[in-house]
Design goal:
alpha+beta, Beta-Lactamase, 5-stranded antiparallel sheet, Heat Shock Protein 90, 56% helix, 10 helices, histidine kinase, Helix Hairpins, HATPase_C_sf, phosphoprotein, 20% strand, EC 2.7.13.3
Length: 456
């Protein structure tokens, strides 16, 4: 693809070419009209000089051609001059009889007409002089003309000079356009240089002291780097937390395996196997939650937001029935209303968050458990509620502090579940609220800004 400078220069050049054609036509038309007006005045002046020099002697017109008339016509030195003086009877008194008046101009006292002079295009002026004397009564017409070389030359000269001015101004415009484009691109070059010189791990915002038009791109670039920085930080924390969380259960499994290989008592071997199974199941749940957290972190910045009805999320999680398989002894009820509870979010992330809240309710709450979605004070809420009292107030406050520090992933598996729900809430502009309700029940809820109502 060509450079922006070349494209602007080409655009200006095309504009100048089109403008040059238009200006050429207009300049030639103006030049031809100006030349015609100027030389027509010379012809008319010469004809008037000749007409004023006609006198009457003994009843006959006497003509003495004035030098001044030909001096006026001498301003076109390369043109041929012709004249004809016509008496009252229509006879030629002097001059070229080849000069013929147009048939539709015989009654015109004065004016102009185009014709030819010995095969060359010519322009003529007519001046009539009326005599009313006893010896001469009638009109004498004076016809003076010249060829059109000087006229055409003047028209071409005006056109040529106009094109010279257009070419000079066009060249100046192209140079100015190049200079302006280069000056406009200078901030981009500075930005590119700054990005090239940066450390690959430096995702701090770029300097926004750039022209307003370029600031839009800088803001978008800074926003992209901020999202990338959040994802990288989240991934670094996830890797660190994974190493921290897995070290102990893996070491415990290895120790139990060593005990099993060195144990001779069959009953003790069975207990070791039970512990290994319990540890393996716990490790599996921990890995599932960590993978869920990685999915939520990834989708939080990359997934496309869409209008989601939180009632559908609660209904899908309830109908999937995972709780009935894993915790058949726990009763779960669905509580959704008839009004839509819509938010702008991502369906898989919301499902993952609700599943983790439900899993925590199974582990640490009391039946019956309810899941639902509702509108509360202009907020769209999806929640899980159980009959237990939940953690005490001090523990709830500590959980909130850990959410703010972003270190909950280092806690137990319950903390991981809440951390996943908290990440989903923050990703879509909401919050995780853990509270004891007025009915002596414990509720974990995700609160979001309700999406604007869609028109019918």
């Amino acid at each position: 693809m060509t450079s922006l400078t070349a494209r602007v220069a080409a655009g200006v050049a095309v504009l100048l070419i089109i403008g040059g054609v238009i200006v050429s036509i207009a300049a030639f038309a103006y030049g031809r009209e100006a030349a015609r007006s100027a030389f027509d005045r010379l012809l008319l002046g010469a004809a008037h000089d000749i007409a004023s020099a006609i006198t009457v002697q003994d009843g006959k017109p006497v003509i003495e051609l004035p030098v001044s008339a030909f001096e006026l016509l001498a301003f076109a030195p390369d043109d041929r001059i012709g004249y004809r003086i016509i008496g009252p009877e229509g006879k030629t008194l002097t001059g070229y009889e080849e000069i013929a008046l147009p048939a539709n101009r015989r009654d015109l006292r004065d004016g102009y007409f185009d014709g030819s002079f010995f095969g060359e295009p010519a322009r003529y002026a007519i001046v009539s002089r009326r005599f009313a004397e006893r010896t001469l009564n009638g009109t004498i017409r004076v016809v003076v003309g010249q060829t059109m070389l000087a006229r055409n030359s003047m028209a071409y000269d005006i056109t040529r000079k106009a094109l010279y001015v257009l070419a000079a101004s066009g060249l100046a415009m192209i140079l100015l356009a190049v200079v302006v484009v280069r000056s406009v691109l200078t901030p981009l070059e500075r930005i590119a240089g700054g990005l090239s010189a940066r450390d690959p791990h430096d995702l701090t915002p770029m300097d926004t002291s750039v022209p307003r038009e370029t600031a839009v791109m800088i803001d978008a670039l800074n926003g992209f780097m901020a999202r990338l920085d959040r994802q990288m930080n989240s991934m670094r924390h996830l890797i660190s937390d994974t190493a921290h969380q897995l070290r102990t259960p893996v070491a415990a499994l290895r120790a139990q395996a060593d005990l099993f290989s060195g144990e001779a008592d069959l009953s003790r071997k069975e207990k070791i196997v039970e512990r290994i199974q319990t540890r393996s199941a716990s490790l599996g749940r921990l890995l599932d939650q960590m993978l869920s957290q990685a999915l939520v972190i990834h989708r939080g910045d990359s997934a496309r937001r869409e209008t989601v009805d939180l009632r559908d999320i609660a209904l899908d999680v309830f109908e999937e029935g995972d709780h009935a398989v894993l915790n058949p002894e726990m009763d779960v009820a669905l509580d959704i209303g008839e009004k839509p509870v819509e938010v702008l979010a991502d369906v898989p992330s919301l499902k993952e968050a609700l599943k983790n809240l439900l899993s925590n309710a199974f582990k640490y709450g009391r039946p019956p458990v309810r899941i639902g979605a509702s509108l509360e004070d202009g907020k769209a809420v999806i929640w899980v509620e159980d009959a237990g009292k939940g953690p005490d107030r001090q523990t709830l406050d500590e959980l909130g502090t850990r959410f703010n520090r972003g270190t909950l992933a280092r806690q137990a598996s319950s903390g991981l579940g809440l951390a996943i729900a908290h990440s989903v809430a923050v990703s879509f502009g909401g919050e995780l609220v853990l509270e004891q309700t007025s009915g002596e029940r414990f509720r974990a809820a995700l609160l979001f800004d309700a999406a604007p109502a869609r028109s019918a």
